[in-house]
Amino acid sequence: MWAERGRLATRTVGEILITLGVALFLFCAYQLFYTNVVADDAMRAEVSDLHKQWALQSPAPRSATPGPGPFDSDDSQGHPGAAFAILHIPRLGGKSIPVVEGTNLDLLSRGVGHYKDSVRPGRVGNFAVAGHRKTHGEPFRYLDTMRAGDVIVVETADTWFTYRADRDPFIVDPTDLAVVAPVPDHPGRKPTKAKITLTTCNPWWASTERMIVTGTLVAQQPRSKGEPPALTVNTPNFR
User: Fold this and answer.
1) What is the DSSP string of 31-72?
2) What are 164-190's pLDDT values in tens digits?
3) Which residue of the set 88, 114, 132, 136 is catalytic?
4) Which of 72, 101, 167, 219 lies at a 20 to 30 A Cα distance from 157?
């Protein structure tokens, strides 16, 4: 009888472990694959909605000289959760990535998130965004493949802004907020250039560090003139 009870207990424990293993496998599959499918669909919808919205607008002329202000009154930037720009990075495969206002986890499943205290695209200061490196669309999964001189293009309702990466990606502590200062790595210094900063988690399977790419604005043109030359050049990417 005791032997039979022992076999029953062993079988029960085995069944529980198998059930837990299956549940863990399904959870991992959901995180690694299904969230990407859902997020990719959401990002495509955001980009499509932005293009439709912009087509109905009559954009005001923009100065060729970057301005100092963080926001303009004629766009939706500043409203939490609002998509207001599209990010294009040829090195990362050329996917069109919506930029939404805010950096909480829910918003990052819809694209990359704009740090609320950083400037708008093309402005003097630091246009800083955060993106997932794994799951939820993982727009910055291959950020480690970026190289100095790579092109980073931001599309807004009326303008294409072209930045070039200042250097290869580098790693900082998660608490290092200096990288999103108006002058990256120099808090308190008055900005004189239009910069961009991309941030994501590192290493790929964890979030104990932050991977950073910074860039400087090198060109801009009206959106009405079509894609900038930087997006028509074939750039070798992670694939």
Assistant:
1) IIIIHHHHHHHHHHHHHHHHHHHHHT--PPP--SSPPS-S--
2) 999 999 999 999 999 999 999 999 999
3) 132
4) 167
